[in-house]
Design brief:
80% helix, 10 helices, Tetracycline Repressor, domain 2
Amino acid sequence: MKEKIIKKASELFLKLGFKSITMDDIACEMCISKKTIYKYFCNKEALIKETTAHVHKEVHLIIEAITTKNSNAIAENFEIRKMFSDMFQASDTSPIYQLKKHYPEIYSEVLTIEINECRKCFRQNIEKGIEAGLYRDDIDIEAYVQFYYTLIFSINENTSSEKEAQKLELKALEYHTRAMATPKGLLELEKQMQNQLL
């Protein structure tokens, strides 16, 4: 039952927001009593902690599946971006923005985990792109990891509209890729950008 509550709460929080969804809403959606939820979670904050951990794990399993498919580094980044876009498309306000605004302590915990995961993921992508000749081999990998990470997190922390955040993320991805790309990489980037318009 605990896993079912976490799964349903995750869906509702991502779709309608951490602040607006109540324990009553979750109980009602699941046709269970609120008492059942409190049997597993002492309060809403405890449930949010568990759901953010659940979403984090789910997201990174999907990212792992995408990166092991062995597509090229640029296509990989666009596929990961699409996965996030699909996951959060029902949201009006950015889940990360909401978490930071209404539950700053939980947000700080999530951020600490995410920083390491994202840095690792971005670094591996750059190394893969260099190896395939899509990214220049003279770039300072650690600096580019830092630039991109700072850009993406700044967008999500400061943009309340999920739709607007996704538009900016696409521009950030194009900017990041263009800064590193070789002529071969630029051709792949143009192809990926065209696919965004379809």
